[in-house]
Design a protein that fits this description.
The complex is a heterodimer.
Chain A lengths: L2 E3 L3 E5 L4 E8 L6 E6 L6 E6 L3 E5 L2 E6 L4 E6 L8 E8 L5 E3 L3 E6 L1
Parallel strand pairs in A: 2-11
Antiparallel strand pairs in A: 1-3, 3-8, 4-5, 4-9, 6-7, 7-8, 9-10, 9-11
Chain B lengths: L3 E4 L2 E4 L5 E7 L5 E7 L6 E6 L6 E2 L6 E3 L9 E3 L8 E8 L9 E2 L3 E5 L1
Parallel strand pairs in B: 2-11
Antiparallel strand pairs in B: 1-3, 3-8, 4-5, 4-9, 5-6, 7-8, 9-10, 9-11
Classes of the chains: A mainly beta, B mainly beta.
């Protein structure tokens, strides 16, 4: 079966760095996405990886290793507004998205 | 630019009633999707449409139907609502010809079936 695993919850301190991991087992691979979802709101697109390596976008970076079925989202200089759930999703060979359950990130002052 | 508009935002419904959740996008995206999101579970695909006039079943299609008469509209109908359909429903769209094909989501419809 297809599966996406990510931690349920993480806590970090304002100004610090946090890494949210995602491992996947899917039927084929056509890209990995990270979305941010604030409580009570819709998910919004953060990043996309289709080749191995690191993609940097401001304070956020996303890494992919296709051979290991592994990705991480790195958030630097954490701000209180970064408190949200972070969703990992993989697009499979049928071009369908398989979603993880999300990681709730709590930022403490 | 509105993006994707869903209606209603929230609804309480008696079991057995018929309900249609509306979704309209103004981005001219070819693909549209309906997801449900439940606590502790990932987004689960109910139905999708790759282009106007076509629809397909997702992971959890039972009890739901969709239509795609034109590019902009993608309504989701619950023919006879049951309490297990209590959830937050998100409509989304994507441009499959785009660079990444990322999804754009509506604000969600919170449905409670009693």
């Amino acid at each position: 079966g297809q599966n996406i695993d990510q931690p349920t919850e993480m806590t970090a301190t304002e100004g610090a760095i946090v890494q949210i991991n995602c491992t996947y087992q899917t039927s084929g691979f056509n890209g990995l996405f990270w979305y941010q979802q604030h409580a009570g709101e819709a998910p919004t697109f953060l990043s996309y990886n289709v080749l191995d390596g690191l993609e940097e976008k401001g304070r956020f970076s996303s890494f992919l290793s296709r051979s290991k079925g592994y990705s991480y989202l790195l958030l630097k200089e954490l701000q209180m507004k970064d408190s949200a759930s972070y969703l990992c999703a993989v697009r499979d060979s049928n071009y369908q998205l398989i979603w993880g359950a999300g990681t709730k990130l709590i930022i403490k002052p | 630019i509105a993006g994707i508009t869903q209606a209603p935002t929230s609804q309480i419904l008696a079991a057995g009633r018929r309900m249609t959740l509306r979704c309209t996008q103004d981005m001219r995206h070819n693909a549209m999707y309906w997801y449900r999101q439940d606590l502790g579970l990932g987004l689960r695909l109910i139905h999708y449409s790759n282009t106007a006039g076509t629809t397909g079943k997702g992971e959890v299609p039972d009890g739901y139907s969709v239509s795609r008469a034109n590019t902009d509209d993608f309504p989701l109908t619950l023919a006879s609502a049951v309490p297990s359909q209590t959830s937050v429903y998100f409509c989304a769209s994507s441009d499959r010809a785009g660079t990444t094909g990322e999804l754009f989501f509506g604000e969600g419809s919170r449905l409670t079936v009693l």
